[in-house]
Amino acid sequence: MTIFSKIIAGEIPSYKVAENDKFFAFLDINPVNWGHTLVVPKKEEDYIFDISDEDLGEMMVFAKKVAKGIKKAIPCRKVGVTVLGLEVPHAHIHLVPLQKEGDMDFKSKIDNPDPAKMKELAEAIASNIE
Predict the structure, then answer these.
(1) Is 112 left (phi over 0), alpha (psi -120 to 50) or beta?
(2) Contact 126/68 with Cβ under 8 angstroms?
(3) CA angle at residue 126 from 122 to 128, to 5 degrees?
(4) 92 is annotated as an active-site residue
(5) Interior CA angle at 61 toward 29 and 76, to 5°?
(6) What is the mean pLDDT of each run of 10 residues along the chain (130 residues)?
(7) For residues 31 and 44, what is the distance between their CA atoms, to the nearest angstrom?
(8) Which terminus in the chain has less CB density within 10 A, N or C?
């Protein structure tokens, strides 16, 4: 069971942003920018391109809804999207609020993000998802 599956199951706490029957979105605990959100399938799959076409399409539509919520909740020019997937063997999409391209630098993280701010951001994003 991956760490993401444990988060989905509620065994590990998270800053949940959205959920449906197939997907789960939560704030990254090592964010590159405030509001950095992960979108994961509930079914464990290591490589995003091994997900069925139908589920991958649904995952992107789910991610789009979350990205729109992020953009409404956090002042940013755009929400960047990327798939890296090497650090956890569970497919996931990164959504990162951007003012400039450098905001998507995964070598630079926010050290020890404030839990109160993370909770506030998660609630703000969640309340802006339609």
Answers:
(1) left
(2) no
(3) 125
(4) yes
(5) 55
(6) 93 96 96 96 94 96 98 96 87 95 88 95 96
(7) 22
(8) C
